[in-house]
UniProtKB/TrEMBL annotation:
The entry's keywords: Magnesium, Metal-binding, Molybdenum, Molybdenum cofactor biosynthesis, Transferase
Organism: Alkalimarinus alittae
Full protein name: Molybdopterin molybdenumtransferase
All copies of domain MoaB/Mog, residue ranges: 184-321
Function: Catalyzes the insertion of molybdate into adenylated molybdopterin with the concomitant release of AMP.
CDD domains hit by this protein: MoeA (cd00887)
Domain of life of the native organism: Bacteria
Similarity-based family: Belongs to the MoeA family.
Reaction it catalyzes: adenylyl-molybdopterin + molybdate = Mo-molybdopterin + AMP + H(+)
Pathway assigned in UniProt: Cofactor biosynthesis; molybdopterin biosynthesis
């Protein structure tokens, strides 16, 4: 077991680099129908075998014409020679005639403009068209969206709702994705009991288990929920051995600070290896990472606020990489803060904050209680404001903001 010296903190970036270097992406692929593909990671490039749209089609309800037939200075009147509803196959347009056409319908091969019906006058099977018709107006060209042979989505891409629609648009019904990660979670601490039980003096409810369950559901992970493992070495050894047989990753909460005897640390060290770190992150300073056989172990600190932050900032990118995802970064943007910090800190702070809009302009509002033992702030917040180490931004300063929608969910 190793740990930083007293006072020496490891940077979040260095820890993240190590985690990403040690992440072992899953190799096994499974077939899923696209309807069940949300949040999964593609294990193949998706290549289109068709053009989308497959033919030139009309963007409006109106009349398809040959532009050369209507170039005069005064409005042209043409006979309506065919009717083309969406889904029908038109014939070539006779010279000096117009086709009644509807939105999405295939434009006759030789027609090269569609005029909106609101701009036309129709009488006795004839249509009078406005002047100034331009070539290809209101025609959506074949292949405008996707062309045959085009890679529409790349291996390693995490599928979002619009990607499901995109795959459907090229007629793909089922795809290969990486199998879901199997993640075992366990909570440590003699003080913990489960919701639904009556708390005796000294006992608190296990909240981390539920935060972690919710966060992992956002990854489509298969969760092996070990609950609160009985606080004996033999029970801990048995639970971890069993979890390591099938799980890719074990995530524990609690028991990673410098405190007394802890069976999880002892058991992991007996079965494999666990390194303890003090990180320059607030909340979440104590952090553990190691393995039991081929199963990675992440030890999050017990404080509920710290579990939430360290999962989002450290475990999330690690899990995404293990899941085969190409991109593990979350997008952030800079916004002014509506508060001032008293003094710079040694640790990079992930404040639980909220966006406040006044006259359409957003500022970052801070929750008044940023204690690592407080979960209400995370529940109240809709993102993290990041305060770099050794800085104390003041009201109006621009600060990086990570919306929670970037960190979990299938945005
Ligand atoms: N002497 C020092 N003490 C502490 C240090 C330090 O550097 N030196 N670091 C502090 C920091 S920072 C953190 S964070 C905590 C982390 O402690 P542990 O990971 O060992 O966690 P525990 O002691 O087991 O629990 C901390 C806190 O969280 C509550 N808890 C634990 N599990 C759950 C759960 N599943 N659901 C709800 N609440 C939970 C637990 O009751 C404690 O209150 O260490 C500091 N100490
Ligand atoms: O890092 Mo701990 O979560 O500050 O209390």
């Amino acid at each position: 077991m190793s740990c930083c010296d007293r006072g020496q903190l490891r940077s979040v970036d260095a820890m993240l680099d190590e985690l990403l270097n040690k992440a072992k992406p899953v190799k096994d692929r499974i077939d899923v129908p696209i309807v069940d593909a949300l949040g999964r990671v593609l294990a193949e490039d998706i290549i289109s075998s068709i053009d989308v749209p497959p033919h030139n089609n009309s963007a409006v309800d109106g009349y398809a014409v040959i532009v050369a037939n209507c170039t005069g200075k005064s409005p042209t009147t043409l006979t309506i020679s065919q009717r083309v509803p969406a889904g029908s196959v038109p014939v070539a347009l006779q010279e000096a005639t117009a086709a009644r056409i509807f939105t999405g319908a295939t434009v006759p091969d030789n027609a090269n403009a569609v005029i909106m019906q609101e701009d036309c006058n129709v009488q006795d099977g004839h249509v009078t068209l406005p002047t100034g018709i331009s070539l290809n107006q209101n025609i959506r060209p074949q292949g405008q969206d996707i062309q045959t042979g085009q890679i529409i989505l790349k291996k390693g891409h995490r599928i979002r709702a619009q990607d499901m629609g995109l795959m459907a648009s090229i007629g793909v019904a089922s795809i290969k994705v990486y199998r879901p990660l199997k993640v075992a979670i366990l909570s440590t601490g003699d003080e913990l009991i489960e919701p639904g039980m009556l708390a005796k003096e000294g006992q608190i409810y296990n909240s981390n288990r539920y935060t972690l369950k919710g966060l992992l559901d956002g990854f489509n992970a298969d969760i092996v929920d070990l609950g609160i493992v009985e606080d004996t070495l033999s029970a801990t050894l048995a639970a971890l051995t069993k979890a390591a047989e099938s799980a890719d990753i074990i995530i524990t909460s609690g028991g990673v600070s410098v405190g007394e005897e802890d069976h999880v640390k002892t058991a992991i060290n007996e079965l494999g290896e666990l390194n303890l770190w003090k990180l320059a992150i607030k909340p979440g300073k104590p952090f553990a990472f190691g393995h039991v056989n081929n199963t990675s172990v992440i030890g999050l600190p017990g404080n509920p606020g710290a579990v939430f932050v360290t999962f989002c900032i450290l475990a999330r990118p690690f899990l995404l990489k293990c899941q085969g995802a190409e991109h593990t970064n979350a997008h952030s943007f800079k916004l002014p803060i509506s508060f001032s910090l008293k003094k710079p800190g040694k640790r990079r702070e992930y404040l639980r904050t909220r966006l406040n809009y006044e006259h359409g302009v957003a500022t970052i509002e801070n929750h008044p209680n940023q204690s690592s033992g407080v979960l209400s702030s995370a529940s109240w917040a809709d993102g993290f404001a990041i305060i770099p180490e050794h800085t104390a931004p003041q009201k109006g300063d621009l600060v990086e903001f990570y919306p929670f929608s970037e960190l979990f969910g299938n945005g």
